[in-house]
Amino acid sequence: MELWTVLLILLLSLVMLVYVGVRLLTYNHDLFKKLAIDSPPTSIFGHFHVGVKFGVFQTQVEMYSQYKYKKVFGWFNFTIPAIVVCDLDLVKAVAVVHFNKFVNRSATIEYEPPFRDILLNLKGEHWKRVRSIVSPTFTSGRIKKMATHVERNVKNLLEYLRQKQESGEEIELKETSGQFALDVIASIAFGLKVDSLKDPKNKFAVEAGKVVKPNLLLVPLFLLFPRLRGLFSRLGLSIMAKKPMAYLVETLDAAIEERKRDGTEGHINDFLDLMMIAEKENDTKEREPLTRSEIHAQSLIFIFAGLESMSTVMSFTLFLLAAHPDCRQRAQDELDEILGDQTPDYETVQGLHYLEMCINEAMRMVPPGFVLDRKCVESTDIDGVHFPKDMIVMIPVYAIHHDPDLWPDPHTFMPERFTEENKRSRHPYAFLPFGQGPRNCIGMRLAMLELKLTLATILQHFTPVTSAKTVYPFKLYKFIPRAVDGTWVKIVARK
Ligand code: HEM
């Protein structure tokens, strides 16, 4: 065959290949037109490139401000379409009123146990059963019992802060809060006493640090070929880090067996204890009791759903108070008035309303769950919008929290936005830090208690102030709610 013929065939093959590739990536890009839903112009990557270029927070704010009067808009992550809901009544409809049509989250990856069994990932009836068994664990009475575990860990934190204050060193609040939050998790959910502030390289901290880092190289493989999960598993491929997960499971099993052996079961008042009780209580009801893997999974939740969120809110609240001495002073005046020298506990922190307003305002500005997602399990029409079966629905929490019509001057820290009067004047779905509806954050009350106990104790003894390393206003990373320049402050002792 002559050279030019070979070249021609190669060229034609290349053109065909590019054509097929583009068709595969764009085959459904007319979907929103068919659904009569507006959508920004797409490229062959859908809208993925927009998010990559501007980052998730800026993209959310810009798209939301462009489309909010249209109630919804269409979005493509490559070929995966999603309806983004901007209208707050429609948010309520999806999360609450028509919840049965949007029971699941959008996760397309099928994980292996125990990660498969964590509430965040469960679907349909399986989710309903586990949520109804675990829910009683988070009632006020039971959370109250867990408060002692928080209080014990706060003492270690105070000691650490005292050292920093005496040496005059600056501290990065996200790191400190992360270590503290992990110690509380070890204590409440794994039956361990660790002090990561003193010993950041302890085995539990190291393994927990590894377990939250999925194998990012494998994620696209699992997303593109979900049906081959069984094969990947046989080949030993796993998105979640296997060894750290095995260590955490062994730790839990050891604690469970020890409690059964020593007869201390039911007397330690931590989450693990309550799960063991929940397991027994459900033996008598019609529901299937929790399996051991499901028990493991519920303790793991604290690491996957509680660690990053708790440390984000704790660090930003303290950071924002350091940057706003007038608000910090008001929070400390409230503490002095209500508590005096008394150590904060479950009962007393209930009266710290201004502190709660500061925490809420920090969560408004930097919501750890900056986007909520659901999957439509049955085609449905709501308020003129058609949601086809299997459509992903996203709620842009960060953008809603920064909508100037709901929150004037949205980049300014103003805890007064959360007075009872101001709350009443706003749409109830304008503030969504813990999500909404039956699938909202199950740990919400425990999280608020832990935050109030910890922050009240810190502010009773110390005053966080800005320091040489403080950069304020802060700028967030493109994809994670964390300050690019850190959250640096200095700690000053109170008289
Ligand atoms: C300040 C701290 C926290 C914040 C801001 C937060 C926020 C959230 C958000 C936004 C969701 C999604 C809700 C939705 O889709 O409507 C969620 C779900 C969840 N959170 Fe939290 N969370 C926090 C702490 C915790 C803690 C300490 C736990 C520990 C138990 C926890 C356990 C969960 C679980 C299990 C879910 C999934 C619930 C389900 O699907 O049924 N969270 N959280």
Textual characterization of the structure:
The chain crosses the membrane at residues 6-25. InterPro entries: Cyt_P450, Cyt_P450_CS, Cyt_P450_E_grp-I, Cyt_P450_sf, Cytochrome_P450_3A. Its cofactor is heme. One of its GO terms (cellular component) is endoplasmic reticulum membrane. This is Cytochrome P450 3a7. The protein is α+β, with helices and mostly antiparallel strands. 51% of the residues lie in helices and 8% in strands. It has helices at 3-26, 31-34, 48-54, 56-67, 88-97, 124-134, 140-167, 173-189, 203-211, 219-224, 229-234, 242-262, 271-281, 292-323, 325-339, 353-365, 397-401, 420-424, 444-461, and strands at residues 72-77, 80-85, 171-172, 372-375, 380-382, 385-387, 392-395, 462-465, 488-493. The strands form three sheets. A four-stranded mixed beta sheet has the order 1-2-7-4. It has a three-stranded antiparallel beta sheet with strand order 3-9-8. The chain has a two-stranded antiparallel ribbon with strand order 5-6. A hairpin with a 2-residue loop joins strand 1 and strand 2. Helix 14 (292-323) runs parallel beside helix 19. The longest helix has 32 residues, at 292-323. The protein is globular and about 90 Å long. The protein starts with a helix and ends with a strand. It binds protoporphyrin IX containing FE (HEM). Protoporphyrin IX containing FE (HEM) binds at residues 119-120, 131, 301-302, 305-306, 309-310, 313, 363, 368-369, 372, 433-436, 439-443, 446-447.
